[in-house]
Specification:
Elements: E1 3-6, H1 7-10, H2 24-39, E2 43-47, E3 57-60, E4 63-67, H3 74-85, E5 93-95, H4 99-107, E6 111-113, H5 115-134, H6 143-152
Parallel strand pairs: 1-2, 1-5, 2-4, 5-6
Antiparallel strand pairs: 3-4
Helix pairs in contact: 2-5, 3-4
Length: about 160
């Protein structure tokens, strides 16, 4: 199920991210790229207040970033996307804590995920792979193997 994400609604809910950062959108896109790679998902993320001269839509692999220019909001763009999807909206998840966006998503039969909940899922997905790759668990040794190793290195229950 692909995601429609209100980017500026999600950023402040991720530890270490801030809307005050000059590259907050890019930081989120990079994190979402890893999430999409691990979960094999597709994301459309919407950001308010695009600077003049910036492309309106940019592709980053499985991520489509929509930079909404002044005069409109990301919320309005998300509502428009839901309307364009029509019945297909039920196959999408909408990530936002904005009540108007959530209400429109429910009316379109899309799955609604509050931004805080998705932030936790995002971090768990990414941290889960980092912790599992960094700390490879060694297989447990059965007692017979342990006895064989102790005998091999000259220590056994008899020497104790």
């Amino acid at each position: 199920m692909p995601y429609i994400i209100d980017g500026h609604n999600l950023i402040p809910r991720i530890p270490g991210f801030s809307l005050q950062d000059i590259d907050d959108e890019l930081q989120l896109v990079e994190m979402l790229q890893e999430f999409c790679r691990l979960r094999r998902k597709r994301v459309e993320v919407y950001f308010d207040n695009a600077p003049p001269g910036q492309l309106k839509v940019q592709k980053f692999g499985s991520i489509t970033a929509h930079f909404v220019r002044a005069g409109r909001t990301a919320d309005q763009a998300i509502l428009q996307k839901l309307n364009r999807l029509g019945n297909e909206a039920r196959n999408w998840s909408v990530v936002s804590s904005d009540r108007e966006v959530q209400s429109a998503a429910r009316a379109a039969r899309a799955t609604v995920i509050p931004a805080q909940t998705f932030a936790q899922q995002l971090l768990q997905t990414i941290d889960g792979t980092n912790s599992s790759t960094n700390t490879a668990e060694e297989p447990a040794m059965n007692p017979d193997e342990l006895d064989d190793w102790l005998k091999l290195f000259g220590e056994s229950d008899e020497n104790s």
